[in-house]
Every structure is written in C-alpha cells, then in structure tokens.
Amino acid sequence: MLFSADAIKRATHYLSLTSGGLGAYSDSRGLPGVRKEVAEFIQRRDGYPSDPELIFLTDGASKGVMQILNCVIRGAGDGILVPVPQYPLYSATISLLGGSLVPYYLDESENWGLDVNNLRQSVSQAHSQGISVRAMVIINPGNPTGQCLSEANLREILRFCYSEKLVLLGDEVYQQNIYQDERPFISSKKVLMDMGSPFSKEVQLVSFHTVSKGYWGECGQRGGYFEMTTSLPGLLKRYIYKVASIALSPNVSAQIFMGLMVSSPKPGDISYDQFTRESKGILESLRRRAKIMTDGFNSCKNVVCNFTEGAMYSFPQIQLPPGALQAAKQAGKVPDVFYCLKLLEATGISTVPGSGFGQKEGVFHLRTTILPAEEEMPEIMDSFKKFNDEFMTQYDNNFGYSRM
Where is the signal peptide (predicted)? Predict the structure, then answer.
C-alpha cells in the first residue's frame, strides 16, 4: 500500500541481480546487470555501443579516479596534466601516489576556456624537469570554474592526447547540470567516436560519472562508475581489475542506486510524470539560482564572475585592495583566506578560498555553491554585497588597519 506497483517491480528487479540481497558481495567490477544498464545509458547518450565488461562500478567517482591514477603513476617521474583551478581530489591523490602534478591554467578572460598551446607549454616544462607526462585530466562541466567545454575544444584535447600518447581522464560527473543552451554537455567518448580512426582506435580514454550530482544529489550513497575505451591495453585492464579486487566489491546499495539513475522511469510507468516534473523542476531552479548568483557577484565592488554554465559552483574573482593585502599579511593569512574568514564572521556565509584550488599568482577567488534554497538566494546575495562593498571601501581607505 505504501509503494506504487512500478516501484515494487523495480525493487524486485534489482534484488534479482544480486547474489543474495544487499548484504552480499558482488563482482569486483559491480553487478553485471547494473553494468549492462550503465552501458545502455551510455549508448543512448552517445549513439555508440558500450561494453559492460569495460565498465566498473565504484564507491563514488572519486574512488574510480584513485583506482585509475594508481595504475598510471609509477613514481615521481610520472606527471599528470591537471586543470588549474582544479578539484583537490587530483592534487591530493597524485601526491599520495608519489606522482607529479603538471598544471595547465584555464583562461578566466575566456570564460575559463582551455588553450591547447598552454598544454604544450606545460608538457614542455615538465619534460625539462625530467617528468614524463602520462595522462591528462579534464573536468567537464568544470569544478570549481563552472564552464562547459565545446565540441571543438574537446576535439583539440583529443588530438593533443593522441599526439602526446596520453591517457585522458574525463571527469564528467556534472553532465546533467547545464544552465545554458549554447554549449550543451557532450561526452568525450562521443566526440572521440565521431572523430573516427586513428583517434578512436588509439586514444586511451576513461570517463567517470556519479550519483552525487545531477538532480539526485545522493552524495552519501557513494555510487559511481568509470568506462574504459577498447584502446586501453588488455594487460592494463587486467591490472585495473586486480586493483579493484583489493576492496572485494563496491557497496551494493550504491550500485543499485546507479542502476536507478541510468534507467529512470519511462513513459507509461506510474512514476514517470512525477519523476519528470520533479527532475525538471530541480534543474530549472538551479539554472535560475546560477543566474541570481552570477548577477549578484557582478553587482559587487571589485568582484568579477563568469556565468556558471554548468556544475554547481560559482568562482568569482575578488580584486582585493592593497590595504586588504597588507592586513592579511599582518594576520598571517593568505589574502583570499583572510577575506573568506571576514565574510564568514560578518555574515555566516561559508565559502572556500580560491587558493585551495590553485590560481595564478596575485589573483584571488572564492568558490561557493549555487545550492542554497532559491527563495533564500536574493537575501544571501544582498548580505554578501553589503559585506563586500563595506570591506572594499574600508580597506581602501584605511590601508589595512580595520576594525572589521
């Protein structure tokens, strides 16, 4: 009486895929039935076949990234190209595994675009330091920067990986979170397959997805997957399986959640109308929140913010006056840390300093999410603007000596 007939049918279906309920181990790659559903989802999305044998279910996308980097990095002489600003998972994991992070800087003036010339310069500099670059990371849509890569940009990246013989790690966990129509999400795999031979046969690509983002936001479930392309050597695939086997199996309830995510209710299902209404409503609200936040930041003194095209974050640049830089130095704080702490004390708004993600020397940012309730967003941005404009005026006038 509590659940609709299609919900009971789906629960029965997923229980039938297990070897003994949610408490039983699965294959180290995940339940074969769920991997088949993931493959079908990828094929619907991209228009190209996907092999369940090349799909691994994981305890969140982060665990998948760590597994792949563990197989790629042999020591300090191995470098991984990572976008800056970057999600700290990458810098932390590369450091933990004893590898070398090779940064390539996104161009803020071009809406955090990626210039292949910068990639070449980064590789050249790494080679001059005796580092062999073995893989490249892209985050699309971007975290913390919120940009969406165009198809043309993805083609350039794939050609670059082909010429440099790099493994491409496609972090695509925000693929459902798109807030504009000019640059819809397109997967690295689709672009690679569209390019045809020799690229599709030789570029080694691993793509990641998760249940933590989109309109689900089930971060605590820790469900994810990665898909490998057929171009990865067979021996490497076996090693990846061996690494996954160390943990026996990913958690089974999150595997089932992944199945639910990739095979959502279809027309004719009892739940279809409700599912469509709720999921569409969440994404439309996030789109409005992205605009409110971007417009709010750009109305502030000494703040410049690119529009959040995708993902869940805003990453405004905070142009701090000399007085604030002096006050931060006196307090023994990094300038953007100093600013974010003052903001927290004055308003209760908690943000992350841009220095936690990497940024160009002398340039400062903060990252915040667009996730506060939509009805609360105008008040939050008014509170931010009031604090920021007073901060800028006071530190401009007092040369760092402030009672704030």
Answer: none
